[in-house]
Amino acid sequence: MAEAVVSFVIEKLGDQLIQEAVSLYEVRDQVESIERELTRMQCFLKDADAKQKRDKRVKNWVRDIRDVAYDVEDIIDTFILKTTHQRKMRTKYCFLFFFKELVIRRQVAKEIEGIKIKIRDISASRTTYGIENIGGVEGTTSYVSDRLRERRRSSPHLDEPGVVGFNEDIKTLVARLLDQDTSRRCVISIVGMGGLGKTTLAKKVYNSNDVKRHFEICAWVYVSQEYRARELLHEMGKKVMGIGRESLAQMNKGDLEEKLSKILKKKRYLIVMDDIWKLQVWDDLKAVFPDGMNGSRVLFTTRIKDVALHADPRSPLHELHFLSDSESWELFSKRAFPMENDEIACIPELENLGRQIVARCGGLPLAIVILGGLLSRKEKTSSVWLRVLQSVSWQLTQDPDQLVEILALSYNDLPYYLKPCFLYFGLFPEDSEVPAGKLMLLWIAEGFVQQRDEESMEDVAEDLLEELIDRSMIQVAEKRFDGGIKTCRIHDLLRDLAISEGKECKFFDIAENMYGGTSTARTRRLTVHSNLSKYVSMSHSNPHLHSLLRISHTEESLRRDQWKFLCQSLKLLRVLDLECAIVRILPKEIGELIHLRYLGLRRTGLQRLPSSIGNLRNLQTLDMRSTKISRVPSEVWKMQQLRHLHLNKTSIMGRQPAHDSVRNLRTLSSVSIYGNSWIHDFLGKLTNLRKLGIEGYFMSQAEALSKSLVKLSSLRTLQLSGNDQILDPTLRLLLNHSKIYKFHLCGAIERLPHPQEFQPNLTKLSLEMSQLVQDPCVTLERLPNLRILRLLSNSYRGNEMVCSAGGFPKLHGLELEDLDKLEDWRVEEGAMPSLRRLVIQDCEVLKMLPEGLGDVITLRELLLLSMPDEFQARIREDDGDDWYKIQHIPSVVVT
């Protein structure tokens, strides 16, 4: 993590030398000198980060570098803070200003000189500690101990009894290996996080009798993180050609590759490559896997999707999932209780405690096996099992199979720019579903996301999240209708790892831990999961704190003086997210937090912003949803870095901003159409706006709205909520805007335009309160690229709806909600050929599901919510009249 800290500080210094050129002018040489020193030390840090786990000398050295990088960041931020304040006072106290600024410059110069001395001492201490070889050729070995690597070395001959939950996986993989319709050599990959049982599953498949009979050559090769291509070739040479170690040592790499390739080309082979971490493994070895078009296969196990797709992008991944509750209990019972006559002898009084212990494992087989094995050796009493339940995390760190180190392999394999993104998940409470959009904006505010050419930072942040998911570190909890990530989660054991690593490197701490006396005086980030006022009342002052997040949906009131304390004592904050911390008016001291990038005030009951809010010149995100603020003060437009402004049907009043002050704005939602002439004078200036939400009476400003929207060439998402009827000319212009892909319309309309008047690339359409009397499907099913359709409350007032054959060719998601007149819905054969998700909610008079739904074989998920009892009875499993229409759908949820 030290590599990440130093890298981000170096990048930040470079940015500040440009962005804060005026403030840093007098100390520019010193800052550049520090930047050069840190860059030199950066060269050693990747290897040092790896070695510190098993060498305390290296650990201390890394800690010193990390702390000095933090000190540099704080010194520069404090200097900018002080000089900014002094410049505000210049006109009032001219002489005093120059004197104080001179004092500040001398002070920072002295502090920077002290930092340079520290860095020289740290460099020299490599010799003192006896760790000069860090970063050298000999220093490239893994941090993983040889003992752990040997324990993880897999062999197909070691049978693992009592395996649970893999029956369907085994059938699927064996069928793919034996598939005679696919003659090309395929690489089939088993993908999942550490501890899910990828190697165990591969063994079961490899040792299948059908597989052994089908392939003429079978070989198992263990790869690992620290592989060497020549050693892997030798391993294959022994198993495929039966050549001894001495003979192999005499062959050069090219000859060995050629011999292996010739032998394998003549045979139908299966080679298992277990525990692959790097793309280069396939690049190094693919020459020895010829494609004789005879059905040969290579089977990978890996935690990283990119590794699998790199080897064979045409082959679908076989992704492992967590065990269900019943499977978890079965596996635990087999390990924890003795077997008698092939039946598990479970002691009834221990079952409740046992199930609680299993729940803490989150469906991860390795954790269940470890705890089950531990309890099989302990006394079968409630008191003993209760102690284990209360110390599950500690027990898992003590096990001889080193579960925590196995999970940490994935963390240590992350590139430096992903490590802080992963650790950030430790700030959220256990079992949280983290909103992906908010998470990415927090990453940007923290400085974890760097610009890449012309790509927006939001797009880069989304790539980082997807990379963590592809590396099996994070799971998708819920997807949006368009397939994007809506919420995500982290497994409890990986969260424990994030908390452990985060605390060790002072990356963050959890406030609740302090109440027992633990100090967080040097931590960079603090999260509060319950009582923020308790933290404030303890008068904790941490001048080094960069982020304060209150993550709780429970409201609590903060007094004005408590808000004032936060603003005055935490001057270096970049992130302040205080959702549900109730306050009527923010103190004017909020304007002193000039480094703030993210200010979250959602659900705070806030009624007014102070004029000092305009001092937050670095603010990127201001979230005021679900507050009582009725108008946007003109001071907001002084924030030239503002990218996302989330409001609550708020009016834009007062003086309209200049173009330069709003050039970065990408989100403006939801804002009231009322207020001066902002639609005419201001809206058209937002040329980088990607998401816009407006509500109010549109008729009076329809022309101005139409003209302004034409100028918004970057607009992708438009949400309109009208209190009056939206007339045909305005509607046609909106739906034909060439760049809008997502459109949410709430309000009455006369009719839908002709399909040719819609923007052809429209992918998502939501209609609400439209009060249409003609079947909307007649028009909408002819839109060629529509993927998501939501017909919400009172969008359609008719009693019949028909989806015609060939209609909705690309529709993936359909939602019908609160259509209180809809009685009959027909789906003709060939309609909606791509539908994957269907939601029907509160359609009180809908008689039954359409007959044609049974022909939609792509449908994977059906949600029936708040439907009448008679309707639910018809789709009851096995005996419901409509069950046959939906029995092919894998996931059916009825609530």
Q: What report would you give on this structure?
A:
This protein is α/β, with parallel strands linked by helices and 895 residues long. It has six domains: 2-139, no CATH class; 146-319, P-loop containing nucleotide triphosphate hydrolases (Rossmann fold), CATH 3.40.50; 325-401, Helicase, Ruva Protein, domain 3; 414-492, Winged helix-like DNA-binding domain superfamily/Winged helix DNA-binding domain (Arc Repressor Mutant, subunit A); 630-762, Ribonuclease Inhibitor (Leucine-rich repeat, LRR (right-handed beta-alpha superhelix), Alpha-Beta Horseshoe), CATH 3.80.10.10; 769-895. 39% of the residues lie in helices and 15% in strands. It has an 18-stranded parallel beta sheet that branches. A five-stranded parallel beta sheet has the order 2-3-4-1-5, sandwiched between helices. The protein is globular, with a radius of gyration of 31 Å. Mean pLDDT is 86; it is low at 136-144.
Give the count of helical stretches: 31
The backbone outline, from C-alpha atoms, is: globular
CATH class of the largest domain: Alpha Beta
Number of strands: 32
Largest sheet: 18 strands, parallel
The fourth-level CATH homologous superfamily of the largest domain is P-loop containing nucleotide triphosphate hydrolases
CATH topology call of the largest domain: Rossmann fold
* Backbone CA Rg: 31 Å
- The N- to C-terminal Cα distance equals 45 Å
**What is the residue-mean pLDDT, rounded to a whole number?**
86
How many separate domains?
A: 6
Stretches with pLDDT under 50, minimum 5 residues: 136-144
Strand content: 15-25%
Structural class: alpha/beta
